[in-house]
Amino acid sequence: MSFEYTEITDPLYVDNKEQTGEDDYIMVRAKECGDVPISIPNWQPAAHCYTTRFHRHEKELLEMEVFPDDVWVASYPKSGTTWCQEMVWLICNDLNFEAARAESLRTRFPFVDVSLIHDAQMNSFERVRNTARPRFIKTHLPVSMLPKQYWTVKPKTVYVKRNPKSVAVSYYHHSRGIFYRGTIDTFVRSFIREHQFYSPYHAHVIEYHELRDCSNILHLAYEDMKRDLPAVVRKVCQFFGKSYSEPQLAELCEHLSFRSMRENKACNYEDQSNVPREAGERFMRKGELASWKQELTSEQIKMLDQWTVANTPNIEHRKLFE
What is the distance between the alpha carbons of residues 268 and 83, in angstroms, rounded to a whole number? Predict the structure, then answer.
């Protein structure tokens, strides 16, 4: 068996799992990671949080075929993934705004590993297999769980990260809109204990940034996209070998503005969602920097900051979470 499965026995999880809707969570650790070109000395991959559905698809995950013309966007959840996907798809598709508006991002850019955590209308690995090339693929997988072929084929990949306090708040609202029934305080404490999907969070970010000889991966930050989107767009264009005029780039940045993205039904996952969202909840909520200051208590902020310090003894790693 290539994966090790462990039940979650943490009292906070056990006492709240039925009330919060998290009763089928499990920790999964990859046991065979010799192909991962990571520079962390004596690295041992952590166990990551999924649901019991992971068992059904582990073979499909490991044996997934990867092509040289694939384009991947990877992240920990709620790190600016959708925003990054739309930017990448348009840059790689000659700024075809008409096509982008005509077809849902979930179709243009399928989420390959969603079947590991949720029941989907179609097996997500099958959906990607049936997608016409060149394929655009979204993933939240940590480096230890990427398909075996990923490391030999090395498709172009954009990894985007985001401040942990912003992630915590966005992840809570996202989860509440789909299935979560707990309070934000319970969610934050669970997040810190690494019992939300794809956690541990810090390891996810650090390990992608510690890959060596992976010129196929471009690293972005949500905060940089908010502060200077044109500069990030130019960086992505260079990464994919694309060149556009200044008016074209201005049109792209306008298309990628929060106002435009929030109203774009092809991007906001509100067009044909197969999971009901709570009244008043929207997939894209605020699109602001540091809105966590208004939503988290001083105690929650302190807990999250202490958590980051505890998980980043390397000062250079700590800079990834500023």
Answer: 10
Rounded CA-CA distance 88/223 in Å is 17
Boundaries of domain holding 46: 3-319
Beta bridge partners of 138: 73, 111
What does DSSP say about strands 48-51 and 25-30: parallel, antiparallel, or unpaired? antiparallel
Domain count, the chain: 1
Q: Is the dihedral of CA 9, 28, 170, 266 positive or negative?
A: negative
Q: Are the C-beta atoms of 261 and 268 separated by less than 8 Å?
A: yes
Tokens of 77: 């959840």
Please tell me which residue in 48, 55, 57, 140 is annotated as part of the active site.
140
The answer to whether 317 is a known catalytic residue is no
Q: What CATH number does the domain containing 300 carry?
A: 3.40.50.300
Residue (of 16, 10, 265, 296) closest to 169 by Cα position:
296
CB 202 within 8 A of CB 311: yes
Residues 6+ apart with CB under 8 A from 164: 201, 202, 304, 307, 308, 321
Using one digit for the tens of pLDDT, what is the confidence trace for 30-84? Answer: 999 999 999 999 999 999 999 999 999 999 999 999 999 999 999 999 999 999 9
Residue type, 135: R
User: What residues are paired with 156 via a beta bridge?
Assistant: 71
